[in-house]
Amino acid sequence: MFEISHPNEYLLSVKGWSDSSNKIVGIQFTTNTKTSDYYGFEKYPGDEGTDILLEVKDKKIVGFHGFADTQLNSLGAYFAPIASTPLKPSKKLQAVGGDEGASWDDGAFDGVKKIQVGQNNDGVSFVAVEYQNGSQKVVGGGHGKQSPLGVETFELTDGEYITSVGVYYDKIHAEGRGVTVVTSLKFKTNKQISQPFGMTGGEYVELKEEGNKIVGFHGKASNWVHQIGVYVAPVTK
């Protein structure tokens, strides 16, 4: 795992290479403060393959897109000007739910524009968030797994921001064992309260901090969203 110390550290570039079958076999990350180890295989003289470099002068990476099946086939990046997004006093609130799954962290932005929530028969299986950063929209990665039930979308209007996120979570029996999953999410803004997305049952926690708005999400996911937390920042006039 490669962790970035947000908000003072940001990702500048990603380099790597793909082999003759067009599978990405090695990747390395560089921030404004450090460079990661190589993930996968480092390319040496004599190795056949295509170099990959995701980098734009005076910009930072704020999101990813690409294609994968059993391996990563392609990778692209979304960029934003470094100077256009001044650092904000965002705060990371502890996530709630279970401890299963892989960690994910979208980071913090100016605000949230749209949230997609997918469900399966047991609870919330997928979440993806679109953020506003200055004048740009930033699409966070999808976390979890989409099911045939599809996704529902909660979209915010201009001037609207999320003040709290209600999280229901419970233990289910799946894959031959007990796992804790998020069963429902509910969003409260300065203008409205959403319907619950999912099944309201189990433990309930409201993620919020007085005088702040939600500006980012993090958590853990596998075939379900097991855990979810938020970043908050002061509401400015």
From TrEMBL:
<feature type="domain" description="Jacalin-type lectin">
    <location>
        <begin position="90"/>
        <end position="234"/>
    </location>
</feature>
<dbReference type="InterPro" id="IPR033734">
    <property type="entry name" value="Jacalin-like_lectin_dom_plant"/>
</dbReference>
<dbReference type="InterPro" id="IPR001229">
    <property type="entry name" value="Jacalin-like_lectin_dom"/>
</dbReference>
<dbReference type="Pfam" id="PF01419">
    <property type="entry name" value="Jacalin"/>
</dbReference>
<dbReference type="GO" id="GO:0030246">
    <property type="term" value="F:carbohydrate binding"/>
</dbReference>
<dbReference type="InterPro" id="IPR036404">
    <property type="entry name" value="Jacalin-like_lectin_dom_sf"/>
</dbReference>
<feature type="domain" description="Jacalin-type lectin">
    <location>
        <begin position="1"/>
        <end position="81"/>
    </location>
</feature>
<keyword id="KW-0430">Lectin</keyword>
<protein>
    <recommendedName>
        <fullName>Jacalin-type lectin domain-containing protein</fullName>
    </recommendedName>
</protein>
<comment type="similarity">
    <text>Belongs to the jacalin lectin family.</text>
</comment>
